[in-house]
Amino acid sequence: xxxxxxxxxxxxxxxxxxxxxxxxxxxxxxxxxxxxxxxxxxxxxxxxxxxxxxxxxxxxxxxxxxxxxxxxxxxxxxxxxxxxxxxxxxxxxxxxxxxxxxxxxxxxxxxxxxxxxxxxxxxxxxxxxxxxxxxxxxxxxxxxxxxxxxxxxxxxxxxxxxxxxxxxxxxxxxxxxxxxxxxxxxxxxxxxxxxxxxxxxxxxxxxxxxxxxxxxxxxxxxxxxxxxxxxxxxxxxxxxxxxxxxxxxxxxxxxxxxxxxxxxxxxxxxxxxxxxxxxxxxxxxxxxxxxxxxxxxxxxxxxxxxxxxxxxxxxxxxxxxxxxxxxxxxxxxxxxxxxxxxxxxxxxxxxxxxxxxxxxxxxxxxxxxxxxxxxxxxxxxxxxxxxxxxxxxxxxxxxxxxxxxxxxxxxxxxxxx
Length: 417
Ligand code: AMP
Ligand code: MG
Known about the structure:
The chain is an alpha/beta fold. It has helices spanning 14-23, 35-38, 166-174, 213-223, 238-248, 268-273, 311-330, 382-386, and strands spanning 31-34, 42-43, 47-48, 58-59, 63-66, 80-88, 103-106, 118-121, 131-134, 144-145, 156-158, 179-183, 187-193, 197-198, 209-210, 227-234, 254-258, 279-283, 286-287, 291-297, 302-307, 339-344, 348-349, 355-365, 368-373, 390-394, 400-401, 406-411. The structure holds adenosine monophosphate and magnesium ion.
């Protein structure tokens, strides 16, 4: 057994621990990323259009490119018929010219031929091939998409700091970029400690349980915007843990482990990393998730999070400390989950002196949020965790909440960053 935290030491507050974590992490340095890799990342340059959008005048409709002056007299009762002297498809490169009294058939997105100044949509005509009869006059410019009407050359289309979702990535492609400078996703190495653990899918033998945490934390890291690597299980052997960490550090911007951080015998993280000196083992005033390890390890001072082993504790610890750190590394704002105020549907109790995070289900009814705790407070109750979409945050000083009380609720939406 190691450590001095026998239960009587002062607890570290959630804020204090979070501040320690956030002070140790900063946004990752930008890299030149493909658009696919940049999705979900934060742009690190101002992107300027090097050509206009659209790049050339083109047709907004399938129809006919005409000279508006040839159709001044066209109407339902006296349509005008023009010879059709060619076809222009989208992607066509040939130089075309429309002489007075003539027209060409044209497709949406095809370049406007010289001489033409309007598009007559197919619907205003008889759809003729050799000649076409047109039943309406066309104003100059009608159904023509002008060069630069969307974006002028030289315009900054996205500024550094923009979070790149699908539509921003689409704009980058539209202005012809295949790569951009962006902050990469933090690479998160995840492993579970515990000699009782077996990989999910492996038949259970007495005393063994499936390793839930490494999969839980890997996917949570992905939802937070990281690129996560599930290393899997390391038994309660300090040497093996140190060897595994040494091997994994090369690809890690952060390391997350679960288990082995409390005061039991075989608390492997504490035994292995306690000797490094740069990892602190704290007792944080929260429920669940009291034992927490955090520090910087290896030659690159990689942030290390040693989370408690009970799956609910591990997950709540991830939400409260690891997720904000990963968001900070990604460079996105806000780093915290959104919170709402909601009406508690049933009484809730909470330990004194600790901030508790109660798994709950939040529903919205006629614009009012109602939140209902799910399951008990046991940190091993992963089934109720999976039914929760929110955490009720109960302040340290509050021990009892009545039904109907207004509480702060952290939303656990599952959207990927
Ligand atoms: P520890 O923090 O290592 O003392 O573990 C606390 C409890 O969580 C024990 O009951 C462990 O068996 C359980 N536990 C630890 N790691 C995992 C894991 N990866 N998946 C599921 N349960 C775990
Ligand atoms: Mg353990």
